[in-house]
Design goal:
By secondary structure, the protein is mainly alpha-helical. Helices cover 64% and strands 0% of the residues. The protein is built from eight helices and no strands. Helix 3 packs across helix 4 and helix 7 runs parallel beside helix 8. The longest helix has 23 residues.
């Protein structure tokens, strides 16, 4: 499916890719679920990848909440810039390194549902109009939501599939 251009497409592709990712994870045995990825990857296993997705959901939710309060969010996070994204992603990895996969999956499901509610609560114009929200800069709310949902799930699916072969 091409990049979403409507609310319905955004919801559908997010759900489709989320389900595809979860179906992949569900297909693995317990041993495979805990297998370490090859050296050279920041995310060392399936849990790390899913925790990464969850945390990026939380960041989008925070950016959105800050906007509702009339505040400009720290993007991508307090103390980080888009140029220091690798450092932020390492911090995310550290934060969840002791959390069990089962808990990470529950957290991911919960944060996924919260992001979906944001999408559901908006019109096509509110989602896709560029420069509508100060915090999204020259792009649209949908661009951030696509990056944190369908595109991110696709990245995760491909990474997990590649690293578990």
């Amino acid at each position: 499916m091409p990049r979403p251009k409507t609310k319905d497409e955004l919801l559908a592709l997010g759900q489709k890719n989320f389900n595809k990712l979860n179906d992949l994870v569900d297909s693995y045995s317990k041993d495979e679920l805990n297998k370490e990825f090859p050296k050279g990857y920041l995310n060392r296993n399936i849990r790390d990848v899913l925790a990464h997705l969850h945390h990026w959901h939380l960041m989008v939710l925070d950016w959105y909440a800050m906007d509702l309060q009339g505040k400009m969010p720290d993007m991508p996070a307090n103390g980080y810039t888009w140029k220091t994204l690798p450092d932020l992603n390492r911090e995310i990895w550290r934060k969840y390194s002791d959390v069990e996969l089962k808990e990470v999956r529950m957290l991911l499901r919960t944060s996924f549902d919260k992001v979906q509610k944001i999408i559901i609560g908006h019109t096509n114009d509110e989602l896709f109009e560029k420069k509508r929200y100060k915090w999204t800069g020259t792009t649209s709310l949908a661009a951030y939501l696509i990056s944190a949902t369908s595109s991110h799930y696709d990245w995760a699916y491909k990474l997990i599939n590649k690293c578990t072969k």
